[in-house]
Amino acid sequence: MKLTHIEHIGIAVKNLEESIRFYEDMLGLKCYAVEEVKEQKVKTAFFKLGQTKIELLETTDPEGPVGKFIEKRGEGIHHLAFAVNNLPAALLELKEKDVRLIDLDPRRGAEGLNIAFIHPKSTFGVLIEFTENPE
Ligand code: CMX
Known about the structure:
This protein has helices spanning 16-26, 65-73, 87-96; strands at 3-12, 33-37, 42-49, 52-59, 76-84, 107-108, 114-118, 128-132. It is α+β, with helices and mostly antiparallel strands and 135 residues long.
């Protein structure tokens, strides 16, 4: 497979508004989008830094993946997203190598991108997301 860059870093926060203010007022970044991803039970805020984005994630449900993460581990880096050219081929390759996939097939994530997650138990403790580069 060919990973091209770090597409984004996902950060779990308790309060989206307060954390947006920190990134804007203290770090001088500009939030360019806020989006709710209902299926994932999160509200997200995006910032761009070079080719990489920062995605702040606030849960909309304590039982959602980010709600459970904050309950168990507190706020902080939640996942790392790598951009890849051909997502179905990358997933197939990992499946054949017995890597534990959360998503066996690509699905639609924030910003309309095709995405898939790999289980942190297969990746030395980091939840890894793949996002497919638009053609
Ligand atoms: N990073 C590293 N480890 C994590 C983790 C994370 N983000 N989330 C959970 N874990 C660990 C837990 O600490 C736990 O480890 P131990 O067994 O050693 O305690 C283990 O994984 C199982 O955790 P859990 O709380 O029982 O959680 P689940 O098994 O129910 O779910 C996971 C974990 C990763 C499968 C689930 O969160 C998931 O499917 N994530 C993918 C979707 C997602 O995260 N969506 C939110 C972002 C959406 C977006 O970016 O738009």
